[in-house]
Amino acid sequence: MPVATVGDDAEASIDVTTESIDAYAELTGDRNPIHLDDDYAAETMFGGRIAHGMLGAGVVSAALARLPGDIIYLSQESSFEAPVRPGDTVVAEATVLEALEGDRIRVGTVATVDGEVVIDGEATVLSVPHETE
Questions:
Q1: How much is the pLDDT for 133?
Q2: Residue 66 exposed, middle or buried by CB count within 10 Å (0-12, 13-18, 19+)
């Protein structure tokens, strides 16, 4: 399989549900009531439950994994621009912006809900040929 090159892009999406938020909290141990308690969350600036920011960022990882080659995360900068709520579909896109030294590439990453940016960022990853057996 070839490696990712400038201009390559990939996409992934997830439907966020209260069950997926609850499962993420159980998996990670992040039990912040803004994610889990309807009554508490209703009194916050968000007016209701929101998903963990890293749940949305996980969809960015899934988009990166769909680029050509084997993709290995080295770093990610993310700006969380808007909340993700139960019932939202998060669509993440990864676009290769620049070839760096060696097998490293710089990738633009963005996650949206209904066209609104919820996470904006940039990743540095390794893109190496997929080893066949």
A1: 44
A2: middle
**Measured CA distances, 24 to 31, 79, 101 (Å):** 9, 20, 36
Q: Cα(120)–Cα(110) distance, rounded to whole angstroms?
A: 5
Please tell me the pTM assigned to this model.
0.93
Residues of the chain short of pLDDT 50, as ranges, are: 133
In angstroms, the CA 68 to CA 129 distance is: 8
C-alpha closest to that of 92 among 108, 68, 76: 108
* Cα distance between residue 111 and residue 14, in whole Å: 11
Residues 6+ apart with CB under 8 A from 43: none
The DSSP symbol for 63 reads H
Domains of the chain: 9-128 (3.10.129.10)
In sequence order, the 6+-apart residues with CB closer than 8 A to the CB of 19 are none
